[in-house]
Amino acid sequence: MISNTYTVLNPTGLHVRPIKTFVEAASKFPCKITVMCNGKKANGKSSLSMLTLGVKMNDEVTLEIDGENEEEAMQTLGALLVQIHE
Amino acid sequence: MNRITEHNLKGIAASPGIAIARAVLLESEEYIPEKAQVASAEQETARFRAAVEDAKAQIESIRESTEQKLGKEKAEIFEGHLMLLEDPELIDAVIDLIEGDSVNAEYALYEVSQSFIVMLSELEDETLRARATDIRDIRGRIMNSLRGVKGGDLGQLQEECVIIARDLTPSDTAQLNLDAVRGFITEIGSRTSHSAIMARSLDVPAIVGVGEGISAIQSGDLIVMDATEGKVWISPDADALAAFQTKKAVYDKRKAELAAWVNKPSVSEDGHRVELAANIGNLEDVQKALDNGAEGIGLFRTEFLYMGRATLPTEEEQFQSYKYVLEKMEGKPVVIRTLDIGGDKELPYMDLPKESNPFLGQRALRLCLANEELFRTQLRALLRASRFGNLKIMFPMIAVREELLEAKRILEEEKQSLIQAGAEVSDSIEIGMMIEIPSAAISADLFAPHVDFFSIGTNDLIQYTMAADRMNETVSYLYQPSHPSILRLIRMVIEAARQEGKWVGMCGEMAGDPNAVPLLLGLGLHEFSMSAGTILQTREMIGNLSYAKWQSHAKHALTLGGQREVQSYAQEQLQGGKQS
Fold this sequence. Notes:
Chain B: It catalyses: L-histidyl-[protein] + phosphoenolpyruvate = N(pros)-phospho-L-histidyl-[protein] + pyruvate. Chain B: Its EC number is 2.7.3.9. Chain B: Keywords: Cytoplasm, Kinase, Magnesium, Metal-binding, Phosphotransferase system, Pyruvate, Sugar transport, Transferase, Transport. The complex is a heterodimer of chains A (86) and B (580). With 86 residues, chain A is α+β, with helices and mostly antiparallel strands. Chain A is built from three helices and four strands. Chain A has a single domain (2-82), classed as Histidine-containing Protein, Chain: A. A four-stranded antiparallel β-sheet of chain A has the order 1-4-2-3. In chain A, helix 1 packs antiparallel against helix 3 (70-82). The radius of gyration of chain A is 11 Å and the shape is globular. With 580 residues, chain B is an alpha/beta fold. Chain B has three domains: 3-26 and 154-258, Glucose Oxidase, domain 1 (3-Layer(bba) Sandwich); 41-147, PtsI, HPr-binding domain (Enzyme I, Chain A, domain 2), CATH 1.10.274; 271-579, TIM Barrel (Alpha-Beta Barrel), CATH 3.20.20. In chain B, 47% of the residues lie in helices and 14% in strands. In chain B, helix 12 links the parallel strand 11 and strand 12 (333-337). In chain B, helix 2 packs across helix 7, helix 12 runs parallel beside helix 14 and helix 14 packs across helix 15 (401-420). Chain A binds chain B through residues 7, 9, 11-13, 15-17, 20, 23-24, 43, 45-49, 51-52, 54, 56, 58, 82-84, and chain B through 76-77, 79-80, 83-84, 87-90, 116, 119-120, 123-125, 127-128, 131, 134-135, 282-284, 308-309, 313-314, 316-317, 320-321, 323-324.
């Protein structure tokens, strides 16, 4: 299992659209993906679960990835967390 | 009897404008299912899956029609809904509950979705909180399919109306005949709720969050809504109605007049071209600048990147923000000011020493030069972002030439090391400085050969010139933008730049002040940067001014005795100009 922490830069935090992009990417990986923020945990393959984290701009988000292809998943998904969406 | 005040409702003005039309109420009673045991959990699961598929098909067709009616961007919300219908935490959890407890699908769906609605409603962020409406929306759709109930058809609206609802779901608005809708009033919601966003994109007024008082409105009531103030009147009497109709006509006319200036260049009556730009303080302001016809960003305050967080922003984080703004502006000029912090604007994680006179202390560039790593990180992020648009870098709070030269030297060093490392850096980045300290204004000719532009920061320039804190009410009378001393400093800066063929902008409040704009035009200011909301009225004003005449008026204003004399002289010329 590996984990890493990122700061979310999108001005409106993680709302519907960035979460959609994230979840679509996460769902392509076979490994277990857990996203943690503000003391809450979410399933990285569920947009609903991700929404309940309430991630705002400048929040720190920890990605915990376990299983096959975990390194590659970390790289792809970490980049999405810091990306700025329209 | 005064019925106007009697039925006054107040809410949040979420989309500006005035509407007068009959009310149409959207019912939003929610079905709460009973819990029941089922004989075959397997059959119940199949029934649930079929209802989900049915909901997907409905949403797909709404998505298509929304895309045709309102465009791809507005249709995206339904892609989000389709995704929710495949969400493992929702769909699998409902099935687990059906199978684990042998309960009916309606109950399982309600229970599982309710837990998410509650979680979302408790979030701090109002945009995310509003997503509870999306869950209700898809839940209602699956529920209707399970129950064999058809949803209400809102497409029938023919006559002009104001929609009254508890809250609007995306499905509701997608099915409305939007041509007939003149406004929205909702019981709950905020500026970022779906109905508010929809109203803004349709360009009709919206007042949200008026509260329980909304129940006073009956279908068919004549509604007056003034969404410039967030106020609602129900069935006003004839006199009041006539007054509102006049107010609406004036408002709509003014709005149309200003809208006509959005895509026009900023040119005086006699053909002198200037540039009207926007001041922005965060990434969301960029769209507002574009919507208001900004020809560029004249001041991008980068402080927001540093504030409200626990550590310094990394180079990558800053790079992403600068790139976003540059790309969004599509080649229009973007002046980014390096960090202006210190003194009164504190960063807890920097541990800056307390100063007895922060406005005269180690702030802005002074702080950056003393904390070089902080400065270099920002410069690298700027340089790396430069290839994504038309970047201009501006240094704040420069008093003497050595500071400018030192900042430029560090910038050049970072540029060379980035290029050596293989990074792509634009070779046409303009470098400028703010003029906000009187020493810099008076000796602008010493700086001009070393910069590509000046931008006059009037808020600080006035406060330093008058030695008066403008937040201190007892001396606020000394905040006099049109005082000849300020105008003379501005002229000195413009003259010094002209000698060297450089341009001068202004990014303080004065640049959008209708009392000052004619004089600034006459003094030869090239770029006026202001809050986005005042750009169109300024462009209209400049379009009606003669540059040649105001050149001589401004020259005369410099010789007058004080701000009062300057302002009344300018007023006389403006009025005289209209008659001639």
